[in-house]
Amino acid sequence: MRPPKKAFVLAAGLGTRLRPLTLETPKPMLPLWNRPMLAHTLDLLAAWGVRDVLVNLHHAPGPIVRYLASQPVPALRISAVFEPVILGTGGALRNARWFLDQPFWLLNADVVADLDPRPLLRAWDRQHPLAACWLTEDAGPRTVRCQRGFIEDFHDPRGGHATFCGLHLLDPRILPFIAPDGFDTIIAAYQRARRKRHRIAGVFVPGSFWADIGTPGQYVQAHRDTARRLGHAGDSFTLPAAAVLTPREQRLLASPGHWASDFGPRTSDLESRPPVSRPRSPVPCPLSPVEVLPPRGSAREFFRLPSVRMPGARLVPAILVRWSPERPDNRLYARHTRFLRSLGLPVPRLLMDAPRDRLLLMEDLGPGTLETRLPEMAPADIRRTYRRLLDLTLRLHIAGLPAARQVRLPLMPAFGPDLYRWEHDYFIRHVLLGRLRASSRTVAAVAAELHTVAGDLAASPQALIHRDWQSSNVLFRGAQPVMIDFQGMRRGPAAYDLASLLCDPYADLPAPLQQGLLREYERRHPQGDAILAVFPAAAVQRLCQAMGAYAVLSRKPGMESFARHIPAAARQLLRALEARPLPALADAARRLVR
Q: What is the pLDDT of residues 166-191, one digit of tens each?
């Protein structure tokens, strides 16, 4: 058949599971990447060749009417019909029978969809059903039972294997099966039609995307899942607090009993901020904005809160961290923060620690990491900053381990044969095999070479190390670098941290600067000569681990950009291999640079 020219968009729902977001704003008008979900739906229909669209309204119709009037879609003629009493999906069709004079699309305005409509059109031509419904096996409750291309039951939780995605290609012949008055659903109409031997096709669309926006959690996840498709990979997004924080989390933020006493509000940095005069109310307000920061690879979620009320009624910006025990090191952040501060190392001030709820609140040092600042920094500023970072590294390496032993600081397991082997396997599995499709002979040769690297590092000077000491884990308080993401601290080769900092693919430091900083470290550390001697091996170990991480992270939704760091890591690896020759690994690195 020719693509339908008409579509009926269901926008009358109450959105009860998304309250309070939907008390005054209908769910189709909630923004998805700063555009109403209804706008994405209309764009999809226009791309499919639809020309006439009818939208039904009930709850909070004003925002939808104003949007349709002020933001016309040139390819579409859009009409609206208001339901004083909500009629359900079936009753809405009965109410719009004047519009339904040919096959048409029926879809929900609050569903995020990206698909090719041709499989549904082909099913229509082949099978001549009463309706063709889009199904997926990849998400949702999977209550639909579909056999030989036809739906037998929409609500079979035990025998179902698919989810109905809320999109129908529908024939007006459905109208006689809708109740003559009152509330009715399209699913009930389908059941009546099936008893008269009408068939409802179920169609799976390869490469499609579907997300239901039924709950606040689903609303947030839809942004993450659509980031790449809508051109926002790696971007943050802003939503009301009620969308991203549970009611309990909002209460915790408003409760002084959870504020960290040793990092109270009367610190020099926070006192320098002028108080903000605002009404006293629970913070954050359910509809106040919260910025959801891009995903990271640490089983944590980060949220920027523009204003959190500190004890004493002052408002300050803060970063909220929701962490998962999936990563054991996440439990250690608060205690490690206090320990590093006791050593005089600059770390974010901890404002709240609620371990039972897996929440941390930290001072907001702004979005500018060293990684993001480097492209705009002058060479002299880069040298100055890295000398300051070298000061922090030396302080951690010289004073850290004795102090940690003294206070019995819990740490992640020390570097040893198992951890070295895990990092090697990570690189082999995800880079050599997953990315380069290396032969078994190459894999065996690289594994043997990396085994010798582990032996060198095990015999080298050990220290308390950050373990992920790179430019993305450096923020700034004024001109002072601040260390973050240190919960993975452990005993390990001092040279590993040094390699993380100076061979960082995010920074890709030039060789002369790298060598100058190495000589300064050697001069100032009591075991500097021994650490410098093993530095090339540490660079090999660290860069292989980093490339494995980039390969894994780049396969996650919204994190595809990590793959672009692999060539820089390979270049740094080739530089290290000039001093520590490993022929098989060098061959692989050259392939990764290209």
A: 899 999 999 999 999 889 998 999 99
Task: Find the radius of gyration of the CA atoms of the chain.
Answer: 29
Residue 179 contacts residue 91 (beta carbons within 8 Å):
yes
CA atoms within 13 A on the CB side of 103: 17
pLDDT of 554 higher than 50: yes
Model pLDDT for residues 437-469, shown as the tens digit of each residue: 999 999 999 999 999 999 999 999 999 999 999
Give the domains, in start order, of the chain with CATH numbers: 6-217 (3.90.550.10), 233-363 (no CATH), 370-593 (3.90.1200.10)
Please give the Cα distance from 417 to 397 (Å, whole number).
21
Q: Where are the alpha helices (DSSP H) in 72-226?
A: 88-95, 118-127, 186-195, 216-226
Amino acid (one-letter) located at 227:
A
Please provide the distance, in angstroms rounded to a whole number, between the alpha carbons at the two ends of the chain.
48
- The Cα–Cα gap between 307 and 317 comes to 5
- Dihedral (CA of 288, 20, 254, 335) sign: negative
- Give the residue ranges of DSSP H helices in 74-176: 88-95, 118-127
pTM score of the predicted model = 0.74
Residues 6+ apart with CB under 8 A from 555: none
Evaluate the omega torsion of the peptide bond into residue 284 and state whether it is cis, within 30 degrees of 0.
yes
User: Are 11 and 38 within 8 A, CB to CB?
Assistant: yes
Compute how many other C-beta atoms are within 10 angstroms of the C-beta atom of residue 533: 16
Whether cis (ω within 30° of 0) applies to the bond prior to 20 is yes
Burial environment of residue 210 by CB neighbours within 10 A (0 to 12, 13 to 18, 19 or more): buried
Query: Which is it for the CA torsion 503, 508, 510, 513, positive or negative?
Result: negative
Q: Is the pLDDT of residue 113 over 90?
A: no
Supply 338's token pair.
Answer: 């206090």
What does the pLDDT look like over 301-349, one tens digit per residue? 889 888 776 666 567 788 999 988 888 888 999 999 999 999 999 999 9
Among candidate residues 11, 103, 108, the one with its CA nearest the CA of residue 52: 103
User: Which segments of 177-327 does DSSP mark as H helices, in order?
Assistant: 186-195, 216-226, 241-244, 247-253, 268-271
Q: What share of the chain is helix, strand, coil (3-state, %, to 5)?
A: 45, 20, 35
